[in-house]
Specification:
single chain
């Protein structure tokens, strides 16, 4: 029974000592609200353009041709016009090919039409083919 009281006292001691050593929660620090003040106008220093002449280097490669915006715009307009013309040529070529295909299919249909007519030679060929492809006489 003595050991029972020792265990109970040990548990109570652990609980109370845990509560006693517990630290108080630290409140979050707040940043104070400062009033908004307008920034003072700081005058920008005036920058003057200084023109510096750069001397030519001996043996340096020639400067590249620099195109102005007007030249670039005219070249773009010419390229756009050339692309439109190429697209028009592609469409015309495609239309011609489609017309040729239609004409060819019409020619094929017209060439096949006379073969479907009933003639004496067609009937003779039909009888011959039926004999060749049909059942043998022994199995009829």
């Amino acid at each position: 029974m003595d050991s029972f009281w020792v265990i109970v006292l040990f548990i109570l001691f652990a609980i109370f000592s845990d509560r006693k050593d517990k630290k108080k929660p630290v409140p979050k620090r707040r940043i104070p609200d400062f009033p908004q003040r307008p920034l003072p106008d700081i005058p920008q220093p005036k920058q003057e353009r200084i023109k510096i002449e750069i001397p030519e280097l001996r043996g340096a490669p020639p400067l590249p041709d620099i195109q102005t915006t007007a030249e670039v715009e005219t070249q773009d307009a010419i390229r756009a016009q050339q692309e439109r013309y190429q697209e028009m040529l592609r469409r015309k070529k495609k239309q011609r090919e489609q017309a040729e295909k239609r004409a060819e299919s019409q020619r094929v249909e017209q060439a096949q039409a006379p073969q479907n007519t009933v003639t004496l030679s067609n009937l003779q060929q039909a009888v011959i083919w039926s004999e060749i492809l049909g059942k043998p006489k022994a199995k009829r």
